[in-house]
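Possible regression after last week's pipeline update?

I re-ran a chain I had predicted before the update to compare outputs. Posting the input and the new output here so someone can diff against the archived version. Not blocking, just want to make sure nothing changed silently.
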Amino acid sequence: MNFIRFFNYDAMKKILFLLLMTSFQIYGQELLLDVLPLDDHKVVFKNVNEVLGDSKLVLTNKAVEWFEENELQIDQKMAQDETHDLISGLYVFKELWGPNDYPELYKKIQCRISLTTKNGRYQYKIFNFVVKEPQQESQLEIYQMDEKKLQKYNPAFYKRIDAKMKDLIFSIESKMKQSTND
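New output (post-update):
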């Protein structure tokens, strides 16, 4: 009799544990081809970082310097409100689409970079990726998405874009963390 009670209690614990575990949903970052981060089905790199002790003005000046150092034209610099400034511009680069290093296989990609500053913190956002070709423009999320080309080219193409964006983000973060005495 004790064995049956023990078995039922042990089985009930296992069932309860199983139900509890299946009720939790784990949300991972949605990715394009398991590489590029997506936000609402669009490729977006963004983060908010703290820089304690730096005012909005100091962070805004660092952001402007970063744009100048990277030879990016600022097309928008404005105060969003009393506490936030926004600096943004277009970043254009070329990336190899195909497996062979031929000039015609490099695609021109344009994206928007925005830096929003506030006392003690800033947010970078890299978004609106567009692949530009002589006769057409396509959003990166849908560019050449047929199965045959996707299997052969796209994973490496997207990995190269991801690496380029991570280098760009590193340069933004390094600039924004720099001491004003440097």
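Follow-up from reviewer: compared with the archived run. The mean pLDDT is 82. Marking as no regression found.
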